[in-house]
Design goal:
The protein is of the alpha/beta class and about 270 residues long. The protein has helices at about 25-30, 45-50, 65-70, 90-100, 110-120, 135-140, 140-145, 155-160, 170, 175-180, 205-215, 225-230, 235-250, 255-270; strands at about 15-20, 35-40, 75-80, 100-105, 125-130, 150-155, 185-195, 220. It has an 8-stranded parallel barrel with strand order 1-2-3-4-5-6-7-8, surrounded by 5 helices. GO terms for molecular function: catalytic activity; metal ion binding. This is HpcH/HpaI aldolase/citrate lyase domain-containing protein.
Length: about 270
């Protein structure tokens, strides 16, 4: 593992927002309102079996989707490839040829897989590593020395991997906070973003406060986001999210602790 960490950040006051879509019109709208990246999802292998009993989404996106989006937007396109296997090198090359600027690796089990992924990308795109297996969390300290650009804690798969009953258990038991502490000064994300007045069973504003407390650097827009925005002004709703994030980052220590207590009580009730 020879990729020395050079990817520190102090830019935690900007919450990078990623949106899963292959809809060119929605992608253009997202770019106009300040979304940071569009994700095209190629992950298939093992996903249906893994998530068969859970309310999750399996996409059927293609390289052609990346090419089509690259023609109409200038924000970076992220491609989520399959978990590391013998085809990973070819998938990375296809993603790069199609126009991907960020490549996302799911379901890494150990840091050596992350290191291999970084080697295959070889600086030609930014790297986004999903932390969503029990074993990778157990070896999280070894990720500190690797040169990935972003990481995202995948609560759904991590819940399954750790045999929890709810994604919220991973926040209640300190798992998410532990990852942030170990990977301090790196761009780490989690959670799903929706309308500032939305969120069920946890109100989104309360989750946003916890994201700010943990120095969350990126998040994804929830798959319900498009429906929840129906009939609403996307620009205004995104401005509300951005303003709430800034306000959350400017809270006093006392306010942060009070909001954390509110959040923990909410978790205990769900």
């Amino acid at each position: 593992m020879n990729h020395i960490m050079s990817h520190y950040t102090t830019d935690i006051d900007h919450l990078r927002l990623f949106l899963f879509t292959t809809d060119a019109l929605l992608a253009k709208q997202a770019e106009q309102v300040g979304i940071d990246s569009i994700i095209v999802d190629w992950e298939r292998i093992g996903k249906r079996e893994r998530q068969i009993s859970y309310s999750t989404q399996i996409n059927a996106d293609t390289p052609e989707d990346v090419v089509a989006l690259a023609e109409v937007i200038s924000i970076p396109i992220t491609v989520r490839i399959n978990p590391l296997d013998n085809n990973t090198s070819d998938e990375i090359e296809t993603a790069l040829d199609s126009g991907a600027k960020i490549i996302m690796l799911p379901m890494a089990k150990v840091p050596s897989e992350v290191d291999k992924f970084i080697s295959l990308v070889n600086g030609r795109a930014k790297t986004l590593v999903q932390i969503e297996t029990h074993t990778l969390v157990e070896h999280c300290h070894e990720l500190r020395d690797l040169g990935w650009d972003y990481s995202y804690i995948g609560l759904n798969d991590l819940m399954i991997s750790r045999q929890k009953n709810s994604i919220w258990d991973l926040l209640a038991d300190g798992t998410v906070e532990q990852i942030f502490q170990i990977l301090n000064n790196r761009i780490v994300g989690f959670g799903g973003v929706t309308r500032i007045s939305g969120g069920n069973p946890i109100p989104f504003l309360e989750l946003l406060h916890e994201m700010a407390r943990l120095n969350c650097g990126l998040s994804v827009l929830r798959r319900t986001f498009k429906n929840e925005m129906s009939g609403r002004n996307l620009q205004a709703e995104m401005q509300a999210i951005r303003a709430a994030w800034v306000a959350a980052r400017l809270r006093s220590r006392e306010a942060v602790l009070a909001d954390q207590l509110t959040f923990l009580k909410r978790l205990g009730a769900n």
